[in-house]
Structure formats: C-alpha cells, structure tokens
Amino acid sequence: MIEDLPDGLDALRQELDLQQIMRLIERTARWVDPETFHLLPLWYPEFARGTYYYNADWSAPRMNTNQQTKKTDPKREGNVHASKALTAALGLRSGDRPNWSCCHIWGIDDGKYQAPNVIIQDRKYFSCVANMVLLPSPLKAFTDAMIEVKAMLRICARNLYGWHCDHEEIRKAVALIDSWHDWDAYPASWPKKSGDSQPMGVIKLDKTIRQNAKRRLERIRNDLDGAGEFYPREEVRDTLAHWKITI
Q1: Residue 161 needs a FRET pair 20 to 30 A away by CA distance; which of 30, 151, 178, 234 works?
Q2: In this structure, how many other beta carbons lie within 10 angstroms of the beta carbon of residue 8?
Q3: Residue 8: inside a domain, yes or no?
Q4: 196 or 112, which is more confident?
Q5: Is 0.85 surpassed by the pTM of this model?
Q6: Is residue 20 part of a domain?
Q7: Which residues are CB-contacts of 89 (< 8 A; sequence separation ≥ 6)?
Q8: CA angle in degrees (0–180, nearest 5) for 104-110-115
Q9: Is residue 221, in this structure, part of any structural domain at all?
C-alpha cells in the first residue's frame, strides 16, 4: 500500500528550511536598478496578461491553430512582454538569460491557481519593472507556491523602489508585509526599510539600458500616432498617465 503523501511544501520544509531557500534567492536574484525604474517604470502599456495579440502594425489579429482539432482561436498574451520589459531593463537580450525566469512580485495569492490574477491582467502592473525580479527558473516555484517567500520579495521590492502595488484586491498582502516579523529568514543584504542598502544582484542603469528605454518610448509614441485600428490607444494613454510617463 502506498503511504499517504504529506503536503509537498511540508515535505520540502523537512529537507530545506526557509532561511536556506531565501539564501538561494538572495544570491541569485537579479533586480532592476531603482534609477531604471524611475527612468521608465512601465515598458509595455499596450499589453497585459490575456490581452489579444495583433500583427506588427496592429491592423489584424494573430491566430493560433490547434494542430489536432484545427480549431483557430485568437492568440493571447502570456508573460512574453513582461519578460521582454525585464530583460531590456536589465540590459540583457533574450539569448543572454537561458534558464532564467521573469517572476512577478505582486499578484493574486491563490495556492489552487483558480482565481484570475487581476493584477497582471492590469496594464498598470503587468510590465512594471518594480513588479518583477529575474530568478533561476527552478527557484520560480518558490515564488509561486510559498507565501513567506512572496512576502519577503515584496518587502524588498517596496523598500528598494519606494513603490508597492496599490490594487484593491491585494490589501491583505500589503497588510502582511506591514506586520512582517520573521526577520531571521529575511536575507541580510535586503533592505528592511526604505533607504537601506540595496540587495545583491541589482543591475545598474547604464548606456545600454538608457537606449533600450529610449527606443521603447519612441515605439509607443509612433504606435499612438500610426498603429492600426486595434492598438488600444485609450488604455495606453490611461496607463501612461497613471505612471506620469510623458510621450
């Protein structure tokens, strides 16, 4: 008879405690420089999780065809443009980061993965570089499944960037980090309050990153002026206004 399995997180904690997990994340995480965040806080106002894809000039939808059923459906955004934003804000190219994953810091905490993640379905937060961290792909599972890990990433990000997500659906998550007390597991190099020293792995703003930001702004400006009928102009302008990004 097969023995009853414990909860997977309980089994993991018997072999690897929270402090050890956080040391792994502390030493490997790559963070956007706060100066980069202030230069361009959000990179793709035209996208959010689940939005439709269109061709390059926004004149026609892109479609996916199921190879078995031959059924055709509109193509939707997964995490592609959030990942592109983080990559560019770190001064990298996609080929420079094998086996690294873009992890959203603020989102809906749902261990059963049933609730819609209205945070990253919102253009204001999806490609915000203060809402992302780059981690080795195996460590992404910790940020997906462990509330304590999420909370400590959020504390670090809030103190690093002076910003946290203000969506009404995550008031409990904000309250949790406001009352956080488990500093034994919190990484030593991460800031406990705003103005503390920066965590390991911050990629400093440089010429390449400035050029990436400049090109992104130029593309947004050009699309607002000349993209096709499906370009979400009103939503893009609202998102830019939220972040006080001038085009």
Answers
A1: 234
A2: 10
A3: no
A4: 196
A5: yes
A6: yes
A7: 32, 36, 37, 40, 43, 129, 209, 212, 213
A8: 95
A9: no
